[in-house]
Amino acid sequence: MKALLVRDVMTRNVVTVAPGAGYRQLVDLLVEHGVSALPVVGDDRQVLGVVSEADLLHKVEFNGADVHARLFERRRDRVAKGKAGGETAGQLMTTPAVTVPADVTLTRAAQVMEQHRVKRLPVVDDDGNLVGIVARRDLLRRYLRNDDEISREIVGGVLQGVLWLDPIEVVVGVAAGHVTLTGKVDRRSTAQIAVRLVRALDGVVGVTDALEWGFDDTTVQRRYTFDV
User: Fold this and answer.
1) Which residue stretches of the chain have pLDDT < 50?
2) CATH number for the domain harbouring residue 221
3) What angle do CA 120, 123, 127 make, to 5 degrees?
4) Distance of alpha carbon 47 from its chain centroid, rounded?
5) Are 47 and 93 found together in one domain?
6) Which of 48, 136, 44, 146 has the alpha carbon at shortest distance from 88?
């Protein structure tokens, strides 16, 4: 039951730019490689920032306008107008860059993307050097596993490998990534654990819990805790 990590889905051959790269060069690279953002790196591959389509569009947005910030303008507008006057990656980039290590899960990477409202993340090693880049579409790869592969991992990895259950006790059905668990186990807590483990597997989009149990040990645990 090994979860996919960022290193498993990231792009390793990353198109990067130096801080001195000019505006026209940045536009050409974005168009040529079909990407929406470029990591800006130093000579040692340290990630200095990220320059995106949005950063470049500020020049279009404020073209011909006064790029000097007014005293009471909102911070976002001041930053945007400042970037409108920029001509190099170092002047246009968003910094500090939001990055992730290669050994985090896809779930964690998705959380970072959502928190910072970005579409892609530079992936760095322990020294902060660029080793890859992961985009939103890469995170969806966890759902590309076929049903047979998911079923085998549930039976061998969860039921037998973790819970030590006889496969004949639980019937596993998988259709388009949705898992249905039927059958009967000894305890209610075992059924609950099985559902949680299955739901966390790569490729599983949902779980229907139709499991029965012989003994509800969860009420015993709650009463024992209360008594203590």
Assistant:
1) 62, 64-73, 75, 228
2) 3.30.1340.30
3) 150
4) 19
5) yes
6) 48
Q: Are residues 14 and 52 in the same domain?
A: yes
Report the DSSP pairing between strands 130-135 and 120-124: antiparallel
pTM: 0.64
Q: What is the mean pLDDT of the chain?
A: 84
- Return the H-helix or E-strand segment holding 60: helix 53-61
- DSSP β-ladder status, 100-101 and 120-124: parallel
Q: In terms of domains, do 34 and 69 share one?
A: yes
Instruction: Spell out the long-range contacts of 106-115 with Cβ–Cβ below 8 A and sequence spacing 24 or more.
Output: 106/3, 106/4, 106/5, 106/6, 106/9, 106/138, 106/139, 106/141, 106/142, 106/202, 107/3, 109/6, 109/134, 109/139, 110/139, 113/139
Structure confidence at residue 72 (pLDDT): 40
Query: What's the rounded Cα separation, in Å, for the pair 26 and 37?
Result: 9
